[in-house]
Amino acid sequence: MYFLVFVSKRLILIHILAVVAIQLFLTRSVSCLNMTNAYLHHKCYVTQGKYEPGSEYEKHLTSITQTMRLTSDLSKGYEMNGFSWGGNFVSVMVQCRGDSYGPKCRSCFATALSGLRRKCPKYKGGLVWYEHCLLEFSGKDTSYQIDYDNNLCMNNPKNVSDQVSVNNSFGMKWMTLVSNLTSIAIKKENNDLAPLYAAGERSFGTYKLYGMVQCTFDIGEKGCRESIGYNMVHFQDCLYGKRGARVLGRNCNFRFEIYAFVSNSLKM
């Protein structure tokens, strides 16, 4: 079971854990887990208001999404398109997980498109997260800006055992893993293959610790590091002492677990 903690510039984070026996089973089953595109959460941008049926806003939003569905192969897992007219603006952004590009990304985009329209009907803006992608509609230009408000934390309420958390060693391990993965993700030589994405694993006693970080392409290397660093501190009460956690945001997301949840993770 996951618990949610929302971020609106003053809040905190965490995720899920497993026993070593379950860990081994889940490690073998990573390919199955990786195929599950579960809905995670959504947020409607209420302050942007709603559009009228048949309005210019609806026409341009529909045009952008249809063009993306028909012409984009999403081979790099990210696309953002916008249109402005008479002082108005509409944009659509999709970001897929680093191991879910191409056909899998297109499939998640179609699912998220349907899901966001259903969960935020006629709202000019909104954001939805699925396991393999995130999708945003917006009536404002949000590109190249760090979003400190639209973030949340999902965690498992179970704490790490006293033996494992001695001297906060578990917390130090996952923080180090996420920090190292962030450094890998922002290296320019990696960006041609999977922009601002990295996944890895490292041993921790009888456990293996798995992690993943990803940022949207528009905020760049500096924004990626800043966004992840901000959320690690901002959600500390949700993250620390837990067996696993994930943070979802408009600009970045990261996750740590004691079981494998993505393919092709680096040994750290």
UniProtKB/TrEMBL annotation:
InterPro entries from the UniProt entry: CRR_secretory_protein, GNK2, GNK2_sf
Family, as annotated: Belongs to the cysteine-rich repeat secretory protein family.
Keywords: Repeat, Secreted, Signal
Cell compartment(s), UniProt: Secreted
Domain Gnk2-homologous: 39-142, 148-261
Gene3D superfamilies in UniProt: Gnk2 domain, C-X8-C-X2-C motif
Source species of the chain: Arabis alpina (Alpine rock-cress)
Name used for this protein in its record: Gnk2-homologous domain-containing protein
Pfam families: Stress-antifung
Top-level taxon of origin: Eukaryota
Principal localisation: secreted
Gene Ontology CC entries for this record: extracellular region
